[in-house]
Amino acid sequence: MKEKKYSAIVTGVGMYVPDKVYDNAYMETIVDTTDEWITARTGIKERRILENGATSDLAANAALDLIKAHNINPDEIDLIIVATVTPDMFFPATACLVQNKIGANTAWGYDISAACSGFLFAFQTGCSFVESGQYKKVLVIGADKMSSITDYTDRNTCILFGDAGAAVLIEPSEDKSLGLQDYILRVDGAGEESLYMLGGGSLNPPTHDTVDKKMHYLFQDGKAVFKVAVKGMADVSYELMQKNGLTGDDVAYLVPHQANMRIITATAERMGLGMDKVMVNIDKYGNTTAATIPLCLVEYYRDSKLKKGDKIILSAFGAGYTWGSSLLVWGI
Ligand code: COA
Prior knowledge:
By secondary structure, the chain is an alpha/beta fold. The protein has helices at 24-30, 35-42, 55-69, 94-102, 118-131, 155-158, 208-212, 222-243, 261-271, 282-285, 292-302, and strands spanning 7-16, 21-23, 46-48, 79-83, 108-112, 138-145, 163-173, 179-187, 195-196, 219-220, 253-256, 311-318, 322-329. 33% of the residues lie in helices and 23% in strands. Helix 3 packs across helix 4 and helix 8 (222-243) packs parallel to helix 9.
């Protein structure tokens, strides 16, 4: 990587999950499924649902949690990047709505759309501004209200997703041994055939017909995505380890996107990591798209399981296709 002026380190974390819970017993009442099938095939036991409000509320509440926990003055925030595929509206950007809700009076911001890899893409972008010396406080938020694009009559998808927001604050450090060390990010647009939401955009603007055809719900060919997700996440994580001369012993945690427990396990195996070194909370929240990785970081940090100096590998795969891994040394 190019020589950087500063290292970009995470100095604060925050999260928000709504109170409403759809557990597997509830899913059994709305579609033809069982707790046993869902648990065995995905690892998910329950997911959180936002009944009132939108993605900007998930994101802003996560940011406010961070601001309170780390005693941050919102006026010092330079930039807000929100990763989401469920923005409140096409425009304005969710980042603008968050800026207003948290009172970050001198910040600018924008959204990044990279589905389940959204947080990784946003995190890398945020770190660049800090590494160059341009900004001192960058807020990166992953937030999705997946319930707003989920068809609750489709058992193939509705059991997978939940709503959440989680945030990290990135600041510069002179200590180059901490913070973002390296990353590999990829896209492959051929993936548009297996995971998408067809309606509502410029390709299929909303009409009665698009609504009748349920084109405003996400569609996933689960089997096809499963295969490429396992390979994509495992390969890129392993490649990043090789590139940085790391073995499983050097890595404190894999922080995987929480889409399916079987994908997580396969990735850990390829990296030579025991499951004690893998962050998992898919059982509690399901797949919250851009929020999964920061949600894990917040929970493990607050449980004192994540310590300063820990080498962690963040890894995700999602619609696009988009995928990648980042090597981060925890800085607080
Ligand atoms: N309850 C019971 N049975 C279900 C079910 C449910 N909720 N959902 C699907 N099934 C059925 C299917 O209809 C199918 O039945 P059939 O064989 O009679 O047609 C059977 O279970 C097997 O379906 P399959 O799709 O092969 O299951 P799977 O083991 O691949 O698991 C997913 C399905 C969605 C959990 C899995 O494919 C997956 O996780 N895919 C990738 C998700 C992902 O990583 N996305 C990327 C980022 S979002």
